[in-house]
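TICKET: design request
STATUS: open
ATTACHED STRUCTURE:
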């Protein structure tokens, strides 16, 4: 891991760097040749990211906890979205090389086949802790990456010994938590695991 956050004045580390999936768009695979005439397959990305880039949470329904192996997914910031969450501080590393362009055209395909790069990201945004949480669906409101206003601490489930962090889906009013993964509205009472960042005290509600 390369950590360049304390090499010079004005750039000091926050919490420990977190490995993140880089959502860089669809890859284009080409055959190139070295000086000896030997060929090899190489690829480029539609929205390539580099060490030092600031990145935002990817807020797509394909970004589930299981699909992403429990780690966050980030991308280039999008105009108007308040999702900028950190800075890449290590060299991106490819996980799997796709067989062809068609195998990795969509984000769903890239997540499923692990046709993406990963990198260490210094997490910002006031997050003091990252933790797995169980989200209980209400049948109406999905848990969308980057949107914490729909999550509230479930007093009923949260008091169970060893239950871990339990959150209820809600229409609004959630504070102190930022989800990194998608959980569908589903059926009332369904549960889904997501990774969340804690930014402040949570609001508590009596869950079902």
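STATUS: resolved
RESOLUTION: sequence designed for all positions
ATTACHED SEQUENCE:
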């Amino acid at each position: 891991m390369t950590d360049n956050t304390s090499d010079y004045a004005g750039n000091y580390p926050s919490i420990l760097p977190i490995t993140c999936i880089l959502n860089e768009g669809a890859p284009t695979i080409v055959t190139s040749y070295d000086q000896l005439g030997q060929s090899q397959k190489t690829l480029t990305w539609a929205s390539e990211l580099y060490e030092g880039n600031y990145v935002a949470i990817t807020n797509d329904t394909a970004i589930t906890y299981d699909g992403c192996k429990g780690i966050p997914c980030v991308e280039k910031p999008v105009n108007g979205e308040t999702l900028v969450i950190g800075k890449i501080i290590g060299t991106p590393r490819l996980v799997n090389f796709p067989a062809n362009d068609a195998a990795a055209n969509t984000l769903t395909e890239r997540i499923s086949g692990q046709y993406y790069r990963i990198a260490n990201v210094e997490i910002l945004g006031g997050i003091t802790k990252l933790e797995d949480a169980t989200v209980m669906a209400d049948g109406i409101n999905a848990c969308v990456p980057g949107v914490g206003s729909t999550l509230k601490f479930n007093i009923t489930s949260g008091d169970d010994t060893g239950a871990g962090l339990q959150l209820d889906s809600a229409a609004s009013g959630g504070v102190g938590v930022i989800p990194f993964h998608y959980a569908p509205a589903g059926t009332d009472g369904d549960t889904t695991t997501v990774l969340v960042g804690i930014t402040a005290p949570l609001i508590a509600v009596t869950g079902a």
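CLOSING REMARK: Residues 1-9 have pLDDT under 50 and may be disordered. The first helix runs from residue 107 to 113.
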